[in-house]
Design a protein that fits this description.
about 270 residues; elongated; MetI-like fold; single chain; mainly alpha; about 70% helix; 10 helices
Length: about 270
């Protein structure tokens, strides 16, 4: 079976991003806490491949550790969304038209009314800015996304013959949801998870940009962009490289999600 081109390209970009994050656990060219004011705003080249920032910190090292921060925030946030949203979606689909279904869907609408940035501001007002609060904000916003995707996919299966046969055999709604419904929408959830992972990285960068994400001395791509905005005319490289990291990572994950959708959806396989 021929793999879609966007899946291969997306997987390569995502692999580079993940490899940099894993490598940063063991090695970086320089310590990200090391301040060398005498080397501040150095252009790329010499001992600093991507240059240095206004504190003399190595940008490549900060990008590598920032990748680790973005992965941690996005993975946990997507995990929260799936862990809560998928069961809610299954329950709503199994009880379509009931009060439970209505409560779940109106609850989703309520969360959608507050974007992740607004949720982060509310959480920060109570607990203060941190990476944990960014995870909570993005995770809460992911819950209705997975609930809606799960409910939509499950509803199309509840009318099929094999589900009706399972009901005639005496299986309850919970058992049918777990044994017959969930197993047939896993592909849909994997694709959606990949897309939400990319959006989680983008959201983490946005929250860090406004000071609501990971706090110093932990590097973050969004805060690197925020720190560079007043110096972009003097040293454009300190804004270009974090921006490229965000763009290429999100692009790679989106391409991989699209490629997985094309690969896993039998209807699209027939079209090709």
């Amino acid at each position: 079976m021929r793999l879609p081109g966007q899946l291969i390209l997306g997987a390569v970009l995502s692999a580079l991003f993940i490899a940099a994050a894993i490598l940063s656990l063991f090695w970086t060219p320089y310590a990200v806490e090391a301040l060398e004011i005498s080397n501040k705003l150095k252009p790329p080249g010499g001992g600093h491949w991507l240059g240095t920032d206004h504190f003399g910190r190595d940008i490549l090292s900060m990008l590598m550790v920032g990748a680790r921060t973005s992965i941690a925030v996005a993975v946990v946030a997507v995990g929260i969304g799936m862990a809560v949203g998928v069961p809610l979606g299954l329950l709503a689909a199994a009880n379509r038209g009931s009060l439970l279904d209505e409560v779940v869907m109106r609850g989703n609408d309520l969360v959608f009314a507050f974007p992740s940035l607004v949720i982060a501001i509310l959480i920060t007002a109570v607990f203060g800015p941190s990476a944990l609060n960014a995870i909570l904000a993005i995770g809460i916003f992911n819950i209705p996304v997975f609930a809606r995707v799960t409910r939509g996919g499950a509803l199309s299966l509840w009318t099929l013959d094999y589900v009706l046969a399972a009901r005639v055999a005496g299986k309850g709604k919970l058992r049918i949801s777990l044994e017959h419904i969930l197993s047939n929408i896993v592909n849909l959830l994997i694709v959606q998870g990949t897309i939400q992972f990319s959006l989680g990285i983008l959201a983490e960068a946005g929250l860090s940009y406004v000071g609501l994400g990971a706090q110093p001395p932990l590097p973050s791509w969004g805060r690197m962009l925020a720190d560079s905005q007043t110096l972009i005319s003097l040293a454009p490289h300190i804004a270009i490289f974090p921006g490229l990291a965000i763009v290429l990572t999100v692009l790679g994950l989106n391409l991989m999600g699209d490629g997985m959708r094309d690969l896993l959806d039998p209807r699209l396989r027939r079209i090709r």
